[in-house]
Design brief:
heterodimer, A: 279 residues, alpha+beta, Thrombin, subunit H, six-stranded antiparallel barrel, elongated, B: 171 residues, mainly alpha, 68% helix, globular
Chain lengths: 279, 171
Amino acid sequence: MRNLIAFFRRFRVFLVFVALQIFALSIYFTFLNFPRAQYLTSASAVSGSILTVRNDITKHFNLSKNNDQLQQENIWLRQQLPNSFQRLRNRTYEIDDTLFHQQYLYIPATVINSTVTKMNNYFTLNIGYRQGIKRGMGVFSNKGIVGIIHNTSEHFSVVKSVLTENINIDVMIQPIGLFGILKWDGKDARRGSVTGISNDLKIKKWSKVVTRGGSGIFPRGLMVGHIEKLNPVEGKPLWDVVMRYSEDYRSLQRVYVIKNLMQAEQDTLEAAIPVDKEE
Amino acid sequence: MNDIIKHSIRFVALVIAQAYILNQLEIGFGIQLMVYPLLIFLLPFELGLIYLMLIAFVMGVLIDAVSNTYGLHTSSLLLFAYLRPFIMKVFSPRDGYENQREGNIFEMGPRWFLFVFGTLLAIHHFWFFLLEIFRFDEFFFILQKTILSLPISYMLCYFLQALFVSKPKER
């Protein structure tokens, strides 16, 4: 017994070393083969929260790349939405297996130059006709519509934004389905107006304004803004509807350009309407 | 400054630097930088080996917990702590370690530091990569990692001392 105690005293340090080393190695080899236990990993609460802070700092390094990926994914998702498709109404026979045809495609773009303080504000996008942009295509962001393509060059295009005087996009007040025309007064980049709303109808404040999709530039139901105030128009039975844009155009960066695959079809059909002779 | 506070600050700083900065770097060629053995090396000479190993154990577990390496850093740091007195005895100066308190480059000189710390760090790195790869047919890869990482780790430890360890006053 005395010898044993003496032995432990003598090799005390070495025994501690061996014990700790065995512990460390046993953790190492167990986790190497069966990574199952939850303590002592970065998934635990303390180191997890520190890593979250670290990620909060470092995630901005890859921000632009991540945004591009998200934009691609959004396009893919939006192209699956029902309002990108048109129902085939042919009852006698089916051309495809599917019920829906793709009507709208979306092209990602970045706003590289913009003004919001002028009377007519135009935004410049980083893509042009090489990427398939044409005059008259709609532009929107994930929060709301942006404008209509006004001019294109080989690699750039100019958007006539909703912050121009005669943008005249046909919009719809959401719950009641009233149609109006979007206007801008050239002063406040956060507010526009909707004209042509008859004042015999009650409109709730903060009801949604969305695109009507009548001219084929925008799909139906894209967000435009919310109604903030109703002003009576003197001498006319109309409301002057003050609307707050859902998108903040002062910090706009990522947008999508809408390509309507059935635009030509709609245009030729509508061109066949006889012109009114009295006008 | 009080010794305990000084070493505690070093402990925290080195754990954070190792776990959150150096273990996140991807340099290539299998290089991995490890500076945390510096804390164990700079602990006072008169500190008992058991305390040394316990501190090494805690530090290794902390670093392992954050970097998801499980006992890897713990094991190699324990080996480092265990071998420290033996290597120091081999390279001990003529009058022993009685006048000095810790083995930094200013008190012991860069030459002594190169021999003692270099040897210990080489053992530490080799043990670390040996465990990490743990395949003897990859022996040359283990050697490559050790040989490439060792000088950079050593330089880093040297500069850390040159920057943060205060020079002792002339006696």
